Amino acid sequence: MQYIYQWFNDFMSLLSTIKFGDILDIIIVAVLIYSTLKLVRDTRAEQLLKGIILILVFYTIATFLNLTMVTSILKVFLEFSVILVFIIFQPEIRKALEQLGRSKFSKNYLKIFQGGLMSNADRDAKMKAISDAADSAMVFSHTRTGALFVFEKETKLTDIASTGTILNCDTSPAIFANIFFNKAPLHDGACIVRAGKILAAGCILPLNSKEDGRRDIGTRHRAAIGVSEVSDAIVVIVSEETGQISIARNGLLSRDYDRESLVEVLEEYLLPETNEKIDLTSRFKKRKENKTDEE
Fold first, then answer.
1. 218 burial type by CB count under 10 A (0-12 exposed, 13-18 middle, 19+ buried)
2. CB 3.0–4.6 Å: which of 43, 47, 71, 176 could bond 62 by disulfide?
3. Given CA atoms 154, 158, 163, 165 in this order, what sign does their dihedral have?
4. CA distance 101 to 80
């Protein structure tokens, strides 16, 4: 009983020394650890993280057993572990920073430095691009012509555009038809649309990073999902095999669009009338669950 009483007094004494800054420090560290584990979960980085933890265990055991040579080797490795972590986890770190840049906080903060709503001219140009892309997608759907339209939003895709041919031209169904004509040199890549204009065509997109990626989709759809994972772009895909029109956003794929529904989603996402947030994720998940047709 005396032991429990002494333990309780020690515990209360310890609590009395804790300040608000200490609590905040613990919460921040816990969030960072949780975010790191969530980031590497179900990726190759998870296995690498397990390997680093195993090395730490070996180092502790070697130190306890006075294994001088083993301890020295592991110590040198651990001294350069920070650099190794940045090299090994470079894709995951880049993805985390990109997600931070696209977070709600960063977008709301950056609005302070932006000019608010888009001008009427910009809006008209985007509306024309949406209409032209929708018309072209319907034609491609009937003719079974594969196509990829990448509508850039806040995340700039200049690095991806540099993999193709820079056009900087106005949109039109005729131009889209020439780009994605199956004998044309640019038909295999993606067409990037920025601010209502065709920025580039024949662009190579990154494939989706998930190792457990779906097997019922081809390279074109995987590329669309991939670029939507690393940016806030919305991607329209026309299947060459089935003619089906799909949309990729935030790593999610939804299918079976007609012209009306395609224009509706693109306008809602690309032409916000207010500064309110538009979240189509639930709609995409619902479509993803309901549409199970395979190519």
1. middle
2. 71
3. positive
4. 28
Distance from C-alpha of 136 to C-alpha of 172, rounded to nearest angstrom = 8
Residues 6 or more apart whose Cβ sits within 8 Å of residue 69: none
Which residues fall within 8 angstroms of residue 210, CB to CB, at 6 or more apart?
42, 251
**pLDDT (tens digit per residue) in 94-129:** 666 666 665 555 555 555 444 455 567 888 889 999
Contact yes or no for 266/278 (Cβ under 8 A): no
Strand order in the sheet with 165-170: 165-170, 197-203, 190-194, 147-151, 234-238, 245-249, 252-254
- What are the φ/ψ torsions at residue 69 (nearest 5 degrees)? -65, -45
Q: Strands 197-203 and 190-194, how do they pair?
A: antiparallel
| CA distances (Å), origin 92, targets 97, 100, 160, 225, 249 | 9, 12, 19, 17, 19
Residue 6: band (very low, low, confident or very high) from pLDDT cuts 50, 70, 90: confident
Q: What SS3 state is found at 257? A: coil
Q: In 10 A of CB 130, how many CB atoms? A: 25
Crossing angle (nearest 10°) for helices 68-79 and 81-88:
50
CA distance 151 to 234: 5
The position carrying tokens 């806040």 is 154
